[in-house]
Design goal:
Blueprint: H1 7-36, H2 41-53, H3 59-69, H4 74-112, H5 126-180, H6 186-216, E1 226-229, H7 230-240, H8 242-247, E2 251-256, E3 261-264, H9 266-282, E4 289-297, E5 300-307, H10 314-317, H11 341-351, E6 355-360, E7 365-372
Parallel strand pairs: 2-4
Antiparallel strand pairs: 1-3, 4-5, 5-7, 6-7
Helix pairs in contact: 1-4, 2-3, 4-5, 5-6, 7-9, 9-11
């Protein structure tokens, strides 16, 4: 908040202070000209002398006392009186200023309470009013996001718990058949064994998703950056997924410029692009290609991971990077993970001062990551 936004408050305080000074000077001037040096001066002096004469003090001695105590020290009494008057009047001004502090305190209590009413201040405190209302809206929004996130997590845990029963029930059933029929034909035995293995793998994936949900909020991502050849890393990740691509009858088209250098955490960025590629594989139409492009433009490196598949609705594109969010909404789909991969990828990219976004149309879905390129000689 810039200080110039409080000009009105400064002017109010300045005007009130000037009024105190002027009023004090006016009262002091009147007191000096009426009481000390004016028409009431003699009455005051006579009253002083008669007061001490009442205690049987000789008149001349009372007059000498007057001049010794008051008459010769008028300047000091005037200064002390001025300070006293100024302090008294300024106290009332401070009482008005403290009203601002009371309003601010009430505004803070408003933020901490559950009241839906916005903070309201006097016009002089309007900039602070706007700031506190913005803070209040941010806190309410974060609370709502936390509630929604917790609900998504709880729903997902319920879904995964339900999903765990399916492969486990199948495994138990097929193993029971294998155990009760030792003379089963070899071909049929291989079939049941293969199905049991697939179900066991799926069961392991679901258990891993439970672990991801549990540890997501318990860890802070800490970067260990260094000079990184991004071109080499992307090509390596694509090669490592060759078996998965072949199994699903997919191919990978790689178009990566040579020697794209960045300063970043190799392990964390590898996790980002591994998540994006596995996400593309999971939602890619069979027999199609996954496209990986990386090139430098305007001192930034742009990486695109695209797959041909079902279009993601426009209203869901902005939500897919939220934790525990799944586009497919399926409780038992093999493509439905814990909804953490893209959320973690977004956090890692932003820690590298980059951005990540998604685009989707009738032909393909694209995830676009931009990272700062390493300057020459950096």
């Amino acid at each position: 908040m810039k200080s110039k936004n409080y000009t009105r408050l400064k002017i109010n305080i300045l005007l009130q202070t000037m009024l105190v000074v002027l009023f004090t000077a006016l009262v002091g001037y009147l007191f000096k000209n009426l009481v000390i040096d004016g028409i009431y001066n003699h009455k005051f002096a006579d009253g002083f002398v008669h007061f001490f004469m009442w205690f049987h003090m000789p008149e001349q001695q009372a007059i000498d006392l007057y001049w010794k105590v008051i008459g010769n020290n008028k300047i000091y009494f005037m200064g002390a009186g001025f300070l006293l008057l100024f302090s008294l009047f300024f106290y009332f001004v401070l009482s008005r200023i403290t009203q601002y502090l009371k309003e601010i305190n009430q505004g803070i209590e408003n933020i901490l309470s559950d009241f839906n009413e916005p903070v309201r201040f006097k016009p002089a405190l309007r900039p602070l009013e706007d700031s506190l209302n913005e803070i209040k809206m941010t806190i309410r929004r974060q609370e709502q996001e936390a509630i929604e996130s917790e609900k998504k997590k709880n729903d997902l845990v319920v879904f995964l718990a339900h999903d765990l029963k399916t492969p486990l029930t199948s495994i138990v059933a097929y193993l029971s058949i294998l155990e009760t029929k030792p003379d089963m034909p070899e071909e049929e035995r291989k079939k049941y064994t293969h199905i049991s293995l697939e179900k066991a793998i799926r069961l392991g994936e679901l258990i891993n998703e439970f672990f991801e949900i549990t540890k997501f909020n318990l860890q802070d991502i800490v970067l260990e950056p260094g000079n990184l050849d991004l071109s080499m890393m992307l090509e390596q990740i694509a090669d490592e997924l060759y078996a998965v691509l072949k199994e699903k009858n997919l191919r990978c088209d790689v178009q990566i410029d040579d020697t794209l250098m960045i300063y970043g955490d190799a392990d964390k960025l590898a996790r980002v692009f591994d998540n994006l590629l596995r996400n593309a594989i999971a939602y890619c139409d069979k027999g199609t290609a996954i496209r990986i492009q990386a090139k430098e433009r305007h001192q930034e490196i742009e990486i695109v991971v695209a797959n041909e598949g079902e279009k993601i609705p426009e209203e869901e594109l902005s939500a897919i990077f939220e934790k525990f969010y799944r586009v497919d909404g399926s409780r038992s789909s093999k493509t439905g993970g814990a909804g953490l991969g893209l959320a973690i990828a977004k956090e890692i990219v932003e820690l590298h001062h980059g951005t990540i976004r998604a685009e989707s149309d009738e032909w393909e879905t694209r995830f676009i990551v931009t990272l700062p390129a390493m300057s020459e000689g950096e």
